[in-house]
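Exercise 3.2. Students should predict the tertiary structure of the chain below and write it as structure tokens, then compare their answer with the key that follows.

Predict this chain's 3D structure.
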Amino acid sequence: MTTVDTVRGPVEVDALGTTLMHEHVFVLTPDVMQNYGDGWWDEEDRVTDAIAKLRALKEAGVDTIVDPTVVGLGRYLPRVARVNAEADINIVAATGLYTFDEIPHYFHYRGPDTLLGGPELMVEMFVKDIREGIGDTGVKAAFLKCVVEERGLTRDQTRVQHAICATHRETGVPITVHTNAAHQTGRAALELYAAQGVDLTKVVIGHAGDSNDLDYLKWIMDQGATIGCDRFGLDLFNPTDHRVAAIAALCAQGYADRIVLSHDAACYMDFFSGEAAQQALATAAPNWHFLHISQDVLPALREQGVTDEQLTTMLVDNPRRYFTPAG
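Answer key:
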């Protein structure tokens, strides 16, 4: 029996069902929230709201969300576990580090080629999260999350990526990497991963769907990796109809087995904290929520000729394969 770790414990990969591969429960800045959040953060309200949103997602037919919230995005599993106890949906947790450029000072002086030297702390932390659990929660991470943004593989970013690759080689867990589609940083990520011995079939190039450059998207998939068409509702980066047309074209060319879908939404994200910012966000991106794919995107894809079999491939089969150990 092959299982994948979730917030509520191991689940058979065959039971993951319909899966959105890039969603967040909470994205927070803890030191800001703890010092200045009194005007916009209420723990009970936020937990209650998250439970309601995830229950609605489950009712819409989604069985699993893959949550790439790691250090740098306010990961706090006790809060997520509390939500998940009341919302009957699988939540797959991640380990890794979210930074566009420089690493936190916590790592700066320790590790290879640093002032104090020693082993790579990031590898130790990531492996512990995967094998023993995150903090004292007992929740084990099931995949790695990292970033290659517009600034590319800076010195610090390269160190993070090497730690991600080393952890992947040691544990076999897959990788999801946030990329900048406009700058095609998925190329740099895959080239580094190939050189580091990463199994590219276990890599999702996140946010690739912000691009409609089919040559770029096919290049990623031709390496064996999967493209994350995972920002539905964020029309600022790419309008929904363009995203739909690109996916339909790729499906028609036989690439459905290397595409996953999602919104990159959250129950609450403090990038937009406070009532005024929340209202402005709703006005600017009214479809950026967990139900947009179920309600709007899937019908639009069908209208563009994407078959139900291809939708099942993208929403069920590809996530299951991603979490199934190689070999």
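Discussion points: The domain at 3-322 is CATH 3.20.20.140 (TIM Barrel). The radius of gyration is 19 Å.
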